[in-house]
Amino acid sequence: MTRFTVNGQPIHYKMDAATPLLWALRDASNLTGTKYGCGAGLCGACTVHVDGAAIRSCQVPIGSIEGSFVTTIEALARDRSHPVQQAWVAENLPQCGYCQSGMIMAAAALLEKNHAPTDEEIDAAMTNICRCGTYPRIRRAIQRAGRVMSGAEEISAAPPPGIDPEDAANAVPALVKPK
What are the chain's domains? Predict the structure, then answer.
């Protein structure tokens, strides 16, 4: 039985200590913003923060992070106002979107340490794979978010439309008619 904090909430997982963090988050906590990509720690779709560091959650057994603080994309900024999220929208970055939560989490961890990373530093930190090849826009969005975080720029982009996470469980799909 493993205990740590997820998105500010103390959690006690009654799962095998060898269970990858990815599956504890997705299956036990229903935090599905963290994506399964390769299962080998190569693609980065499963990136979350553990004690502030970007990690590949498919490779981390929950038993190894006892007492840690985990942050997923759902809690980076619940209202989607984090500078990285805003820069992603402002730069029209997402295409298919599958890698985006992991990319955003990796970028946020980089920018917490360095608000003005060079292209080389961005390339070294952003080892996530984007199958759509949006790497030039990713670099621009990271640089823009860094300027916002340092106070040199403001982004006027509104948070993207969507369902409030609190209401998601109550949503009725448009194609399903109640009986």
Answer: 2-76 (3.10.20.30), 83-149 (1.10.150.120)
Most distant CA pair in the chain, distance: 57
Q: What would the mean pLDDT of 127-136 be, rounded to a whole number?
A: 93
Alpha-carbon dihedral sign for residues 151, 76, 8, 10: negative
| Tokens encoding 91 | 């730069």
pLDDT at 23: 97
Residue 70's DSSP bridge partners are 6, 50
The total of other beta-carbon atoms located within 10 Å of residue 9's CB is: 9
What pLDDT shows up at residue 160? 54
Distance CA 51, CA 5 (A): 10
> Which residue bears the tokens 């300027």?
147
Question: Which secondary structure element, helix H or strand E, spans residue 86, and what is its range?
Answer: helix 83-90
Q: Where are the beta strands (DSSP E) in the chain?
A: 2-6, 9-13, 47-50, 53-56, 69-71
